[in-house]
Specification:
This protein is α/β, with parallel strands linked by helices. The protein folds into two domains: 66 residues, Chemotaxis Receptor Methyltransferase Cher, domain 1, CATH 1.10.155.10; 191 residues, Rossmann fold. Helices cover 38% and strands 16% of the residues. It has a seven-stranded mixed beta sheet with strand order 6-2-1-7-8-10-9, covered by helices on one side. A three-stranded antiparallel beta sheet has the order 3-5-4. β4 and β5 form a beta hairpin. α2 crosses α4 and α5 packs across α6. The longest helix has 20 residues. The chain is globular, with a radius of gyration of 21 Å. It starts with 22 loop residues before the first helix and ends in a 9-residue tail after the last strand. The relative contact order is 0.12.
């Protein structure tokens, strides 16, 4: 990738390449992505922004980032503004990533939650930035290991992501076979099968897919659900937000946890602000709610 130049000079390109991207262009993109998704782009991200959006300029046959910014700011560019957000959203995930979280879920959260389900109660889990779906499917597989007939009960996993394209991919429940190697062998044998229409591809069993509801959701916009959730996975999301935005999201998320429910976050993240007042550490990047609460599930 071309190297970034110092962000000086109003008219020249700040990244070497086929398109001109000025300081004003970059900051225009940064302002839009912050307003739309809460993502904070520092000046050092200019090469990344150029690399990802240059593909969109080529697809649209535009000659400069100034033209692109003009388009996405206009009413005619609403769809492309969504494409811009998708291009700049990082989607790094894998099955059973950070396995200690799933071990904690299975040992300390699910036993009581599933007993509650057996007695007729609700169980709700939330994967709040599900990307292409490996995280919520890992949650579902962890649950099914403990309760193979989970479909008989009022148990659901909500899986949300800001990118509708990722949601559509996740909803299919199909992956390259090489990506499924991180799934424990016993779970793979029972709940994952070869997808006959595409050699080298596997798919999740209907019993796995049926536990999960996929929805598009922007974490800095209004949320339709009210909780309570027995577990929330919000991992490697806050690192893209500035500190005030992080604090606001944690403050909205923590009260959605039921009593003794768990919040799992990324390895380089920390809960801060008002949300931290009702959480206690319960292991590596794992928190539990300390007070009773939670509203009726949506």
């Amino acid at each position: 990738m071309s190297s970034a130049r110092t962000l000086l000079g109003a008219g020249r390109s700040i990244v070497d390449g086929e398109f001109v991207m000025t300081v004003a262009d970059f900051r225009s993109v940064a302002d839009m992505i912050h307003a739309d998704a809460g993502i904070a782009l520092s000046d050092q991200k200019a090469p990344l922004v150029y690399s990802r959006l240059a593909k969109r300029l080529r697809a649209l046959k535009l000659g400069s980032f100034a033209e692109y910014c003009s388009l996405v700011k206009s009413s005619a560019g609403a769809e492309e503004r969504g494409n811009m957000l998708g291009a700049l959203t990082t989607n790094v995930t894998r099955f059973f990533r950070e396995p200690h979280h799933f071990e904690h879920l299975a040992k300390f959260v699910l036993p009581a939650a599933l007993e509650q389900a057996r007695r007729g109660g609700r169980v709700r889990l939330w994967s709040s930035a599900c990307s292409s779906g490996q995280e919520p499917f890992s949650m579902a597989l962890t649950l099914l290991r403990l309760l193979p007939d989970a479909a008989r009960y009022d148990i659901r996993i909500l899986a949300t992501d800001i990118d509708p394209n990722m949601i559509e991919e996740a909803r299919k429940g199909r992956y390259l076979a090489e990506l499924a190697t991180d799934i424990p062998a016993d779970l793979r044998r029972r709940w994952v099968s070869d997808y006959e229409d595409e050699p080298g591809t596997v798919e999740m069993a209907p019993a796995v897919r049926d536990l999960i509801e996929f929805r598009t959701l922007n974490l800095i916009k209004p949320w339709p659900m009210r909780g309570p959730f027995q577990a929330i996975f919000c991992r490697n999301v806050m690192i893209y937000f500035d500190l005030p935005t992080q604090s606001q999201v944690w403050a909205r998320m923590a009260p959605l946890l039921g009593p003794e429910a768990a919040l799992y976050i990324g390895h380089s993240e920390r809960v801060a602000g008002p949300g931290a007042d009702i959480l206690r550490s319960d292991g590596i990047t794992t928190y539990r709610r300390t007070e009773a609460g939670g509203k009726a599930a949506s």
